[in-house]
Amino acid sequence: MQGKIVIEEHFAIPETNGVKNRVVNPYWDGLSSSLVEFESKRLGEMDACGVELAIVSLNAPAVQAIPDVKQAVDVARRANDALAEQVRKRPSRFQGFAALPMQDPEAAAKELQRCVRDFGFKGALVNGYSNTPDAKKALYYDAPEYLSFFEEMQALDVPFYLHPRDPVSTERYDGHPWLIGSAWSFAEETALHALKMMGCGLFDKYPLLQMVLGHMGERIPYDIWRLDHRLQYRHDYPAKQQMAYYLRNNVHITTSGHFRTQTLINAMLEMGSDRVMFAIDYPYEEHARGATWFDGAEISETDRVKIGRWNAAKLFRLNLA
Q1: Read out DSSP for 251-292?
Q2: Which CATH number fits domain 4-315: 3.40.220.10, 3.20.20.140, 3.90.480.20, 3.20.20.30?
Q3: What is the pLDDT of residue 56?
């Protein structure tokens, strides 16, 4: 399929480009250089795989891992300025998501305003919880102090992409380090964070607010029936609607780093094909692998074109020819 749009594609600035090898493996070779490069390898792979446009975001955990608020604000601003310059050079090939210093909700709202109004960014991608000076304490966005931030996000009418990072503590993985990271703990951590946001009443207060989850929904769509089935017996569940309601009205998912047709079809059945979008997760995944899978996935051509292009165009209000 030509004209695909990908929406979880990463870049780095020197302050955030600390790729750490969990194990010695050729997979990690070249990731640092790929994160900072826009002009040849990235565009070449996009062209070869029928990708017209990438909405690019800062790598993880980046700003969210900075405990000092002033430094987080500064790094977010510099990263957004750098991305805006790349978008300015090739607006038909690259658009951007804002990096935000969520350590300070007011500063995050101001930076979001700047990025949307001055740069035309299409929303924000936030790399999970934010660190604080207390290594055991993290900031999650279901907390009441973030309500004003999400009020501004709804007013600007742009989505909030919640991207993974490792849990605050990985002690429960002791002896099994292979479960840490993208294989398992990323999704576990992100799903819990997303469920807190879905269940706390956030979307009751801001019903037009939209959240995006990568990696086929961080496993949430496949457990949503079980979740609501058990929650019906709880009197302490604070939201007004079942979780499935928010999944189908306030959440979108992407295929980033999860190239499996059976999973895609399950997600489409649970959420509807209008709420699924194509993504690669470059450079952590290869364009060719994701595009080859998606172009040949056993779904209808109508759904392929929606998922590969038009769902993203509608959600992010992209001006396409």
Answers
A1: EEEE-TT---HHHHHHHHHHH-GGGEE----TTTS-HHHHHH
A2: 3.20.20.140
A3: 98
Name the band, by pLDDT with cuts 50, 70 and 90, for residue 26.
Answer: confident
DSSP state of 13: -
Q: Which spans in the chain are helix H? A: 31-36, 41-48, 69-89, 105-119, 147-156, 185-199, 202-205, 224-231, 243-249, 261-271, 287-296, 301-305, 311-315
Q: Is the pLDDT of residue 37 over 60?
A: yes
Active-site residue identified among 104, 166, 281, 303: 281
CB 264 within 8 A of CB 215: no
pTM, to two decimals = 0.96
Catalytic residue list contains 236: no
- Strand-by-strand arrangement of the 124-126 sheet: 124-126, 160-162, 211-213, 251-254, 276-277
Which structure tokens are listed for 300?
């209808």
* Domain boundary assignment for the chain: 4-315
By CB neighbour count within 10 A (0-12 exposed, 13-18 middle, 19+ buried), where does 158 fall?
A: buried
Sign of CA dihedral 246, 250, 256, 259: positive
Torsion sign, CA atoms 82, 88, 93, 95: positive
Whole-angstrom Cα distance, residue 94 to residue 42?
11
Indicate the residue type of 20: K
Residue 182 and residue 180: Cα distance in Å, rounded? 7
How far is residue 115's CA from residue 175's CA, in Å, rounded to a whole number?
Answer: 43
* Percentage of the residues of the chain whose pLDDT score is greater than 90: 93
